[in-house]
Amino acid sequence: MDDQAYYRKRMICLARNGDTTQAHAACEALRSIKGIIEANPISHYRLTLTYSLQNLTFELIENLLKELGYYLDDSLFALIRRNIYQYLEDNAREKIQIDEEKHKLICDVDTELPHQEPDKYWHNYR
Predict the structure, then answer these.
(1) Sign of the torsion formed by the C-alpha atoms of 60, 63, 64 and 65
(2) How far apart are CA 84 and CA 86, in angstroms?
(3) Is the pTM here over 0.70, yes or no?
(4) Which domains can be identified in the chain, with CATH numbers?
(5) SS3 sequence, the chain?
(6) Distance in angstroms (rounded) separating the CA atoms of residues 52 and 34
(7) What is the pLDDT along the chain (126 residues), one digit of tens a residue?
């Protein structure tokens, strides 16, 4: 299958916080991430992003932007758009059979936590 079948182009709206260089700075930060094909600002608070489903998910990109300090627009229209993007992406992943396990963060199991049945564990503290 052609690699472009895995590409998705999305518009991301950032919260209006008064910083007029916000979209430009977010694009600069995103361009260095593996799987980002293209990131361009449209206006002070909007950007277009082309990424590969093989490396990234829209949800991961949203979380990364939040972690970097770029907050997303929470208007009703923007929320609906993001939910539609995620729905379409989930369907595309299922259709082209991309393993979602590759995109989940791997966490070590905390050895200090008890690994008993919940009833047995809580029984010790009653």
Answers:
(1) positive
(2) 5
(3) no
(4) 3-100 (3.30.70.100)
(5) CCHHHHEEEEEEEECCCCCCCHHHHHHHHHHCCCCEEEEEECCCCEEEEEEECCCCCHHHHHHHHHHCCCCECCCHHHHHHHHHHHHHHHHHHHHHCCCHHHHCCCCCCCCCCCCCCHHHHHHCCC
(6) 9
(7) 457 778 999 999 998 887 778 899 999 999 988 889 999 999 989 999 999 988 888 889 989 998 988 888 989 998 999 899 889 888 888 887 755 555 554 444 444 544 455 455 445 444
